[in-house]
Amino acid sequence: WAPMSLPGQREQYVMLMPPTKLRGDLLSLADMGMDSRSFARASGLSFDAILAQDPISHGKLAEIYDHIGAAVSDDVTLQCGRSIKLQHLGLLGYRLSNCATVGSILADWIEYCGHIGYPLIATLEIMGGSWRMHFHARYPLPIEAEKFCVTSTLAGFAQSLFNLSGHPIRLGRIGFPGPRRGSKAVLADLGADEVLFGQ
Question: Is-above-0.85 flag for pTM?
Answer without folding.
Answer: no
